[in-house]
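TL;DR need structure tokens for one chain.
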Amino acid sequence: MELILKEDISGLGYKNDIVKVKDGYGRNYLIPQGLASLASESAKKVLAENMKQAAHKAEKIKKTAQALADGIGDLVIEIKAKAGESGKIFGAVTTIQFAEALKEKGFEVERRKITFKGEVKMLGEYTAVLDLHKEVKKEVAFKVIAD
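>> reply
TL;DR here they are.
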């Protein structure tokens, strides 16, 4: 089943992408939730026309995302967490904490656009991936230090 995505869906695609999914996933989840619509020939033509008109705006958004990624550069974020003697922290570091640490450095990134490579449950160094745009992804190193 071919669908046109109405929103970014992690692991599937970005808004306005045409994706192939299994019939049940499309019919029972994506379409009823309003996340996608059927990709008929007329819908594809409408999408192509809309994409053509939105190309200039999309280029501006991409440049903004690239500027943010360049601004972050090789920045290393430090996140403080309470930890036991073995180095295991109480709970886990979340994307909310990471977004707040970025905000303190002057970079505004929505927490939903942040993912970690693995779970962050020990003191040490980790990597976060910022999905700033369809074509702009930025890896940021961060340290979890004892509070």
